[in-house]
Amino acid sequence: MVYFDLNIPYVEGGGGRAGGGGGKDKQKSTRVKLVVKAMELGYTGIAYNYNIHGVMADCHRCSISPLPLSSLLQLAPSLSSVVQFHRKILKVPLDSPFRQYTRLTVTVNSMIQAASLNSGNPVLQTYDLVAVRPTNQATFEHACQKAHVDLIAIDFSEKLQFRLKSQMVKAAIQRGLYFELIYSPLLSDTIAKSELINGAKVGSLSFSNEEMRN
Which residue of 34, 63, 146, 187 has the fewest CB atoms within a 10 Å radius of its CB? Predict the structure, then answer.
């Protein structure tokens, strides 16, 4: 068995836009720390997740660069031994390479935005993984039935504005899609916890905490 964290926040100026100044350096430093921590915990791969809302544009093409593993080892000299320790506990093969992927998550509020998630969209083709976060019943059903994505992200930070109809869920799973359930709200919200438990009664699940850690 191998373990992945597919939701490492990428905020260094955006997936295809250059940031600048000390803010970008601080954001990159945070990303490095998150990757080092994932490696220390025995993960065999991560995905840098760039979020966009609304209309997709050519500027959203991916330009996320993976971090050189040599620089991570310089930052944490004991990283190699810690990685081996946790991989043995998790029964992860020690020779499994550490992989870095890119991911785009698109929050859609309308069918016009949802329609852009198609196989002919050149922006989507620049990322390894594509996720959609629907906000209403129409966009959820489109995501399940037609959207050219890998993941459907369900956000429990607020009350869902749509129903997780079993017919739609089955349609998505038959298409090979996975559902990502964002679970951080349930840590302090009993209502969100109840909704998440009900939503988890499907297969093909991925769980995400989706909190930016300092």
Answer: 187
Do 105 and 155 contact (CB within 8 A), yes or no?
no
- H helices present in the chain, as ranges: 21-40, 69-75, 79-90, 111-115, 137-145, 166-174, 190-199
DSSP-derived secondary structure letter, 187 = G
Residue 151 phi/psi, 5-degree rounding, is -130, 145
Report helix, strand or coil for 108: strand
Whether the Cβ atoms of residue 202 and residue 179 lie closer than 8 Å to each other: yes
Distance, CA of 7 to CA of 177 (rounded, Å) = 16
pLDDT at 211 over 60: no
Of residues 127, 111, 115, 122, the one with CA closest to residue 51: 127
83 vs 133: CA distance, rounded Å: 33
Please, which residues have CB within 8 angstroms of residue 130's CB and are 6 or more apart in sequence? 103, 104, 105, 106, 117, 124, 148, 149, 150, 151
CB atoms within 10 A of CB 21: 8
> Which two structure tokens, joined as six digits, stand for 77?
């000299």
8 Å CB contact between 81 and 48 = no
Condensed to tens digits (0 to 9), the pLDDT of residues 102-159 reads: 999 999 999 999 999 999 999 999 999 999 999 999 999 999 999 999 999 988 777 8
